[in-house]
Specification:
The chain is of the alpha/beta class. The chain has two domains: about 190 residues, Rossmann fold, CATH 3.40.50; about 110 residues, Putative methyltransferase TM0872, insert domain (DNA polymerase, domain 1), CATH 1.10.150.170. Strands 1, 2, 3, 4, 5, 6, 7, 8 and 9 form a nine-stranded mixed beta sheet that branches. Helices cover about 35% and strands about 15% of the residues. It is globular, with a radius of gyration of 20 Å.
Amino acid sequence: MSPNPPGSPVSPGSTPATRSAHVPVLLREVLQVLELAPGLTVVDGTLGGGGHSRAILQRIGPTGRLIALDRDARMVDLSRPRIAGSNVHVIHAPYSHLPRVLADLALGPVDRILLDLGWCSDQLADGERGFSFQVNSPLDLRYDSTTGQPASKLLETVTEEQLTQIISEFGEDHLARQHARRMVAFRQKQPLQTTFDLVSAITGQPAPWRGTGPDSRHPATQVFQALRIFVNQELEQLHEALNGVCDSCLKPHGILAVLSFHSLEDRMVKQAFRDPNRWETLLPKPLSASPAEQRLNPRSRTALLRAARKKPSPPGPLPSTDLPAVP
């Protein structure tokens, strides 16, 4: 199925029949911090499996309005029937395009915005784009296949030094140089075209790799994270949202809540919310998942929830969120 162009609504007829494997992270805490009430207009900037959106709809009721975005057309197709309704707009677009989306819908600023920056379990289960290193698939890693280039294409030409910087900056991996050296040596023999190629290059062993215990981390985890972030320009998207998009699209006294899953994202959100002229922080410290939730949903272990209320009439220029340099 070809993805819809970014910014276009998805028709009900394009919906797959598969069920979601995704469990929304910190759902109770997200609903509480958003202070939802009937009649509010809410943006879920990262629809994913639709778990947060479904719960939001229950709180805002038929008099409220939900605008749900996702840059991954497959997630839009999968989740649209779960939240269908006359007061729901499901749009294939990244959250950085929110101003254009609201303009196309003839809507002004909204009451609440939620950004869940993590990947969806349904994306991990998708064996065609390389999100899981336990399944051999093309090394694509793009959320939106209509934009950018796949990771395998990037790895054809990137230098060892550039690769070291990407893994170090976006994967925060202290073995970045070693991984880069092994990947470059591997591609001299054969191209890095699949997930198993990349795993084999990093571990020196045939894929798939098996850990020694339930909590053992795959040695390629941070490399995959780094390549995914780089290929999808995830930090640039977040930087754009924090430096104008959410500010311009949110009503005064509206609330922005952000779920991050690694320190790069959380640091940017924390720095943005430090601006006392624009934001009133609602949480003295970020909320994390309870031990019970972490046991039931392991991907929640690194989740951090921050939220802030927009102050009216913010003066002066927007602050920088220290976007890391890229090669």
